[in-house]
Amino acid sequence: MAPINALIAKVLRAANPDPRQNGTEAHAELLHGIHELQLAAEKPIETVKRILYQVRLPPLTIDASPSLFQWMKERPEQRRDFDHNMAARRNETQRWFEIWPSAEVLGPRLRSRPEDVLLVDVGASHGHDLVKFQEGNSNLPGRLILQDLPETIDSIRDLPPGLEAMAYDFFTPQPMVGARIYYFGTVCHNWDDDSCIKLLSNTAKAMEKGYSTLLISDLVIPEVGASVRAAAMDLQMMVLLAGIERTESQWRAILDGCGLDLVRVWSPSGASESVLEAHLR
Q1: Which of 93, 26, 82, 78 lies closest to 56, judged by CA?
Q2: Between the CA of residue 245 and those of 27, 155, 203, what are the distances in Å?
Q3: How many helices and strands in the chain, by DSSP H and E?
Q4: Shortest CA distance to 81 belongs to which of 39, 49, 112, 121?
């Protein structure tokens, strides 16, 4: 690992790129540099906050540049760093099945035929949440499906028995029809509203009314008085991915556009993300 000062210099170079540089490439280089810095610094949050005010990135325009995820497809090292960063982040937060009452809700009416699917984790990276879910719910019947882009699926090693990895792009129709739970963990904040409606609609069309549940783990920002952390995350999503952190009313509008009703927002004290529960209308 490079010395802290060298990593800070690397991040600042990425944050103030050559004006001729592609917007997506500049954003990806900054993300990669910040990830390295977070791993090396004794106080990563304070270190990153100290330098982010100096960021001068070119605008990330969807029409002019490939998305960050398209860019990482051609750069396995950056994709690997991104996946590892997501894994580390999830290990530090309360998991969705500890927030949503999975033990109480999932017991009744579960189907137990060999082909029946209990849970589809969409955009699951290396399946860190799914592994922990399996460990705590080994008594529940049904298949456990991990879905992510082919390059991420190909990089998975030593997947526990009972978990199935499937290459899937959520901008295409969802192939797993009639699952009990479809879960999106910190996926939607990476995308603008139109993209969110499209990707969630693909899964909504695969849901079975009266049986399937859609769960989304993401920030739910208050309409007024948002915390500094929530506001900073919103800005970070905008700068890095042209994404957004949403209020409850914004989430309702997104889900309404997919033919879904927001049933409840589960937001226990101390949890960084909430779990939104939605059913087919």
Answers
A1: 26
A2: 18, 29, 21
A3: 12, 9
A4: 39
**What amino acid is encoded at 276 in this protein?**
L
* Active site members: 189
With contact defined as beta carbons under 8 Å apart, do 2 and 39 qualify? Answer: no
- Give the model confidence (pLDDT) of 125-155 as tens digits: 889 899 999 999 999 999 999 999 998 899 8
Q: Which candidate, 205, 213, 149, places its Cα nearest to that of 174?
A: 205
Based on the number of CB atoms within 10 Å of its own CB, is 169 exposed (0-12), middle (13-18) or buried (19 or more)? middle
A 10 A CB-CB count for 126 gives: 22
Instruction: Give per-residue pLDDT as tens, 175-211.
Output: 999 999 999 999 999 999 999 999 999 999 999 999 9
- Token reading at 62: 């969807």
Q: How many CB atoms lie within 10 A of CB 155?
A: 14
Q: What are the Cα distances from residue 68, in Å, to 23, 72, 170, 235, 237?
A: 10, 6, 15, 16, 12
Cβ-contact 178, 100 below 8 angstroms: no
